[in-house]
Amino acid sequence: MDTPDDRLDSESSVGPLRRATIDDLPVLLELAAEYCIADGHIFHEATTRAAFAPLLHSSPPDRHGTVWVILDESRNDIGYAVVTWGWSIEGGGLEALLDEIFVHTQGRGLGSAAMPVIEAHCRRHGASRIFLETERANDRARRLYGRLGFVEDDSIWMSKSL
């Protein structure tokens, strides 16, 4: 029997998600700009375009990660989710990072409905864990992720631009 993720790979659409293609880049850029505004980040179109491109063009598929478009009940594009791959000795190998998930109209359960398909996709690719980060002030997001089974780690992410 096919899993939701197998159907998503073969049919490109399951429930509230469909696999993004290069043709979705304009809508993804619009949604990413909205995400940046909502999360208090500066939107850089050229950087965002460059980041999406390998995810939408990769060969083999999913080499760097996967992008989905989140659909409302009328099948309109209203959000997106991006998962990328990482590797961890501590975690025993492949790990997934839910790099971004954004739904233009929040509170309708579409982000929550997308998560089982995203998690199945990560499992199918052999990921041992899925990570995400939230802004410190985004208590609403952490409550949602807590209801979905995510737990806060003691780790503190640090970064340095290269």
Give keywords:
5 helices; globular; single chain; alpha+beta; 37% helix; 6 strands; 162 residues; 6-stranded mixed β-sheet
Task: Quickly describe the structure.
The chain has helices at 4-11, 25-39, 45-57, 110-124, 139-147, and strands at residues 13-14, 17-19, 65-71, 77-88, 93-103, 130-131.
β-strand percent reads 15-25%
Main beta sheet, described?
Answer: 6 strands, mixed
How many helices?
A: 5
Q: Give, in order, the helices and strands.
A: HEEHHEEEHEH
Mean pLDDT: 88
Structural class: alpha+beta
Extended strand count = 6
- Poorly predicted runs are none
Taking the alpha carbons of the first and last residues, their distance comes to: 46 Å
Please give the share of residues in helix. 25-40%
Oligomer: single chain
State the strand order across the main sheet.
1-2-3-4-5-6
What does this structure look like?
By secondary structure, the chain is α+β, with helices and mostly antiparallel strands. The chain has helices spanning 4-11, 25-39, 45-57, 110-124, 139-147; strands at 13-14, 17-19, 65-71, 77-88, 93-103, 130-131. Strands 1-2-3-4-5-6 form a six-stranded mixed beta sheet, with helices on both faces. It is globular, with a radius of gyration of 15 Å. 23% of the residues are buried.
